[in-house]
Write a structure and sequence with these properties.
Elements lengths: L1 H25 L8 H8 L18 E6 L1 E24 L4 E6 L6 E2 L4 E5 L2 H37 L4 H34 L1 E3 L4 E3 L9 E2 L4 E18 L11 E6 L2 E17 L5 E9 L10 E18 L4 E3 L2 E4 L2 E2 L2 E2 L2 E9 L2 E6 L6 E5 L11 E4 L32 H7 L1
Parallel strand pairs: 1-21
Antiparallel strand pairs: 1-20, 2-9, 2-13, 3-5, 3-8, 4-7, 5-6, 7-9, 9-12, 10-11, 10-13, 11-12, 13-19, 14-15, 15-18, 16-17, 18-19
Helix pairs in contact: 3-4
Length: 423
């Protein structure tokens, strides 16, 4: 009885194995919901290949691309601090009491606009006094001039004396000096009066004010700040080994955490004449247009300095490069066969890599499928990004040739009667 059960189990397993093999050859497994998806990913029962795959018996299919030339920019990154193109702290030159404030906080002003007016009553009185002194001296000079003319006339007729003429001449010269002194005092008073009016030396935007109307201020007291933000300067540093390739006019791209999607473009304006002995860096100053005043003095910016620009650099997709230790390998395709080439790389940019040595423009290299190729292997080259050829339609199930049991070299099925005899 035990032997019959074993024979029955063997018969069931043999039938199941045959049924599975038959279903696989006929493509019935691909129609099942779960198993079919597995066979579809694996390429189907016929071993069909997808993108960059291998046919059942032919060479592998790879995607290739021609080596091209493009623009490669060598950049060096740094950080920098923004400062205004022109920036001052507005202070008082002389002491006085503020009688008028001519600006609002954050206001844009023009060059020459009045910012603060100090009390000028005393200075105006000094000017009026100087004018009065000058007028008095002029009147006396005119009176002495008349007396001098009379004395000279009398002296010519013999009625006058030479001493009188000389005395009047001396008085006239003294009054001329008094007139000049009064005019100088007037100019000095007018200059002091002008010092009481604090004006903007250049166009810009004022900051917060630190004084109030009627306040007494002494020389040097901070009134407000004035910044020209139409242009800004950016100070940053780069390693000294770049000094030989630095020059004014190089492009600088800067970004700020405050404006994540915006790139500010400027140019190098100044290269410092000294190297920092502590950091071994050279300081650069770049200038940026800032028409909307988005950049403020003191802001922190990430800087990318364009050191060199190559418009005809040889570039390849990064997917085509295979790293083997310190070497970089690509696989050119010539006459349908793969070669192995060691290359030297330069800059990487936007998914492209610059090739300094080892490739020429126009050569064809493997981009997708590099893990399945080796030197001397024949491949089917398909342009990068092209659609793979559609798979062949399977033959209808009714027309497939049913394999005979004898062609499968399977042992004959054991009948129940034979099994009973063996018991």
């Amino acid at each position: 009885m035990r032997v019959s059960r074993q024979l029955a189990v063997i018969a069931v397993l043999g039938a199941a194995g045959y049924g599975g093999w038959y279903a696989y050859q006929g493509g019935h497994l691909a129609k099942m919901p779960v198993v079919g998806s597995y066979f579809a990913k694996a390429g189907g029962p016929a071993g069909q290949s997808g993108r960059g795959g291998r046919g059942p018996s032919g060479p592998p299919t790879v995607e290739v691309s021609a080596v091209q030339t493009g623009r490669i920019v060598e950049t060096r990154e740094s950080v920098g601090t923004v400062r205004a193109y022109e920036s001052i702290t507005v202070t008082a030159k002389i002491a006085g009491v503020i009688s008028e404030i001519g600006f609002e906080e954050g206001q844009k002003v023009k060059a020459g606009d009045m910012l603060v007016q100090l009390d000028a009553a005393e200075r105006k009185a000094e000017i009026e006094q100087a004018i009065a002194e000058a007028n008095r001296a002029v009147a006396l000079r005119n009176e002495i001039a008349i007396k001098l003319e009379r004395a000279q006339a009398l002296n010519r007729t013999g009625a006058g004396t030479t001493a009188q003429v000389e005395d009047l001449t001396a008085q006239a010269k003294s009054l001329e000096g008094s007139i000049a002194s009064a005019q100088a005092q007037r100019k000095a008073a007018e200059a002091r009066l002008e010092d009481l009016t604090i004006r903007a030396p250049f166009a810009g935007r004022v900051g917060t004010r630190a004084v109030s109307l009627g306040a007494y201020i002494s020389p040097g007291t901070r009134i407000t700040s004035l910044d020209d933000l139409s242009r800004i300067r950016l100070d940053f540093a780069v390693p000294e080994n770049l000094l030989g390739r630095l020059k004014p006019g190089q492009t600088v791209n800067a970004t700020s955490a405050a404006y994540r999607d915006r790139v500010f473009k400027g140019t190098v304006s100044t290269i410092d004449t000294r190297i920092d002995q502590t950091t071994r860096t050279v300081r650069l100053t770049a200038e940026f247009d800032n028409p909307d005043e988005a950049l403020k003095p003191g802001m922190f910016l990430a800087v990318a300095l364009e050191v060199t620009v190559k418009d005809d650099a040889i570039v390849v997709p990064e997917e085509a490069i295979v790293s083997e230790g310190l070497r970089q390998i690509v696989y050119p395709v010539k006459n349908g066969k793969v070669e192995r080439r060691v290359i030297k790389l330069g800059q990487r940019q936007n998914g492209k890599a610059e090739v300094l040595e080892g490739l020429q423009a126009g050569e064809t290299i493997v981009v997708l499928g590099v893990q399945r190729v080796r030197p001397g292997l024949e491949v089917i080259a398909r342009p990068l990004g092209s659609a793979p050829p559609p798979p062949a339609e399977p033959a209808p199930a009714a027309t497939r040739e049913q394999p005979s049991r004898s062609s499968l070299n399977l042992p004959p099925a054991i009948s129940s009667a034979a099994a009973a005899e063996r018991n």
